[in-house]
Automatic annotation (TrEMBL):
Taxonomic classification: Bacteria, Bacillati, Bacillota, Clostridia, Eubacteriales
One protein family per Pfam: Lipase_GDSL_2
Signal peptide: none
InterPro entries named among the record's database cross-references: Ester_Hydrolysis_Enzymes (IPR051532), SGNH_hydro (IPR013830), SGNH_hydro_sf (IPR036514)
Protein name as catalogued: Lipase
Organism: Lawsonibacter hominis
Membrane-spanning residues: none
SUPFAM superfamilies: SGNH hydrolase
Ranges of residues in domain SGNH hydrolase-type esterase: 5-167
């Protein structure tokens, strides 16, 4: 099975303890744990700071599953949950894969921390998760809400801890069964 994980720094495996875009070790990144646990070919298309793109990148036609988790950076850059959801809808509508091969994951809601100084951002991240669910239903794609998984965030209120990545991977594996 060929899987593409398309997302931001939490997909990339960013380690917030460093300042230069470092990553957690492979055994602590959810994408790599998914590959190890399943034996699937998993391509990590996570990128630090990625907002929802206006254009879908070329995806191999033999992709069996596209996992998309985006939107946190859009909110951090001042977009409303509704604006981020509209961008996400345009992005997902441009994906040429069969709808049954797409899994949209609502990002984990942010918490107060070094990168999240305002309760409004927290409210917005919860609202965005709800909009993601509605969007997935409207587009007929699979949906999961990472906010319902027991994922711990680092001091910045945005990035998964190493334990958070492991918990995310475990919950995703259950979701995919």
């Amino acid at each position: 099975m060929k899987v593409i994980c398309f997302g931001d720094s939490n997909t990339y495996g960013y380690d917030p303890r460093g300042y230069f875009g470092g990553r957690y070790d492979a055994d602590s990144r959810w994408v790599d744990i998914l590959a190890t646990e399943t034996g699937w070919t998993v391509c990590n298309m996570g990128q630090n700071g990625r907002e929802i793109p206006s254009v879908v990148p070329a995806l191999p036609a033999d992709t069996d599953l596209l996992i998309v988790m985006l939107g946190t950076n859009d909110l951090l850059q001042g977009q409303s949950p509704e604006q981020a959801a509209e961008r996400l809808e345009r992005f997902l509508s441009g994906v040429s894969l069969d709808r049954s091969k797409i899994l949209l994951i609502a990002p984990l809601p942010v918490t107060l921390g070094a990168w999240v100084p305002s309760p409004q951002l927290i409210e917005d991240s919860h609202a965005f998760a709800q909009l993601c669910q509605t969007l997935a239903e409207r587009l007929g794609i699979r949906f999961a809400d990472a906010g319902k998984w027991d994922v711990s965030l680092a001091y910045d209120g945005v990035h998964f801890t190493e334990q958070g990545h492991k918990a995310f991977a475990a919950s995703l594996l259950e979701e995919l069964k």
